[in-house]
Each structure stands twice: as structure tokens, then as C-alpha cells.
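From the pipeline queue, job 12 of 40. The input is one protein chain; the requested action is below.

Action: predict structure.
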Amino acid sequence: MFKLLRLLMAPLRMSYRRRNGVESQAEKKEIPNAVLLGMARDMIREGHTATISVKGYSMRPFLEHLRDRVILDAPSELHVGDAVLAEISPDHYVLHRIIRLEGDIVTLMGDGNVRGTESCRRSEVAGVVTHYLRPNRTLSASDPALVRRIRMWRRLLPVRRYLLYIYRAII
């Protein structure tokens, strides 16, 4: 059933990708994540903001691979539900959402993940997402409607696998 739905939606997915510039992103020069995100961390520590493109699918459905960008700022105060850039091991960074704060330990999980978490110390959080940049609009991370959708998505963890499967079939 789902394979048939995916097959029928293929032309729509290709049209969506062309409209949102996913294919034109391949022409851009890529810098290794360890280098780029290390530079972003250093800029944030110096008091600047950093804008990075999203790579990977772990933050679906809120952030899409090579389509969206995020603006990162220094983490003044961390809250459950914040999307953060964290160094979980030397030169290995992830952009995931905080699901738990226990003392100095921050537990992270991607929105597109159905299991598995990462942990780091508060000092290893390089930046917190303040804005989501999509092709046609900019969303503030503190937008009440977005915050409600994120909370709802966290509660849907038991059925997230099925929702993501449907989402992938449509996109």
C-alpha cells in the first residue's frame, strides 16, 4: 500500500525538490562538518551569530536536508525543546533537540529519530537555534505555533515511525 502511494507521489516529490532548490544545492562547495561547525562554534563564542545549512534527516519534519538553514546564537539558558548544535564527541557535532536536562548533562534526540539519544555537557552546547530559515520564510524558534507543534511532536514519539514513513512518502 505504502509503496504504491510512494510511487504515485514521485512526480510531486520531484516537482517539490526542483521548486525548493534541492538539486541546485549540489553545485555548492562543501566544507567538512568538523571544520565548518567548529568555526561556527568559535564565532558564536566570540559573540556573533552563525547561519548553517541543515544536512541530514534527523530533524525531519521541522528541518529538511539541504533545504533549510538555521541561525545559531550563544546558549544563555537551555530549555527542553530547544534545538541546539552540540559537540557530542571531539569534532562530531549534531543539531538535535533537547529532550532532558539533568544537572550538567543534556540529553538530545533528533525530531526524525524514533529511538536513540546523545548526551553532552552544557559546556559542549555550541549554539541554540533562534530562527529557522526556509526558502520562502523565516520562523522564530520562539513562535508560539511552532512551539506547540514541537511539543505535540514530542508526545507522538510512540507513533513517530509511522508518521515519518507517511511524510517521506509524500515529500
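Job complete. The chain has four helices and eight strands.
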